[in-house]
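Re-run with default settings, no changes from the original entry. Doing this only to confirm the output is reproducible before filing.
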Amino acid sequence: MNTTNYKNTLITVAIDYTAPFAKTNIRAGTIGALQLELLLASPYLMTSDDLLFEVFALRGKISDADRPAAREKFFQKPQSCLRASPLVKSMGYGIHHDENEKIAAFPVESEEYKALLKNPDVKKTAGMRSKRV
């Protein structure tokens, strides 16, 4: 099975996200809105793989009974990691993976995000740009 999980890593807001604050007016039902809703409701309870599959399952209306087989099939092919998430590309949220690969999202202006950026023990990897250069 392929994985998108990181350990002790902050996926930073994309370099081309220039607003000083994270977006709050997010269109309901979008991938970014669902990811943010799930992460804010349960920080550090899901891995990146869990989040990506949960959003896929919600959008595809996959029943609880069908989820184990659907998850196995979903991860048979490589999936984009959260560096490509709308959260980091266009919404202004950084995503932190802890030592157990569990994730949480932090707005770019938050003290938590700033502290993670300054922490030399946390690896940093940039979110992908929204536009090609």
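The longest strand covers residues 93-97. The chain has a mean pLDDT of 94.
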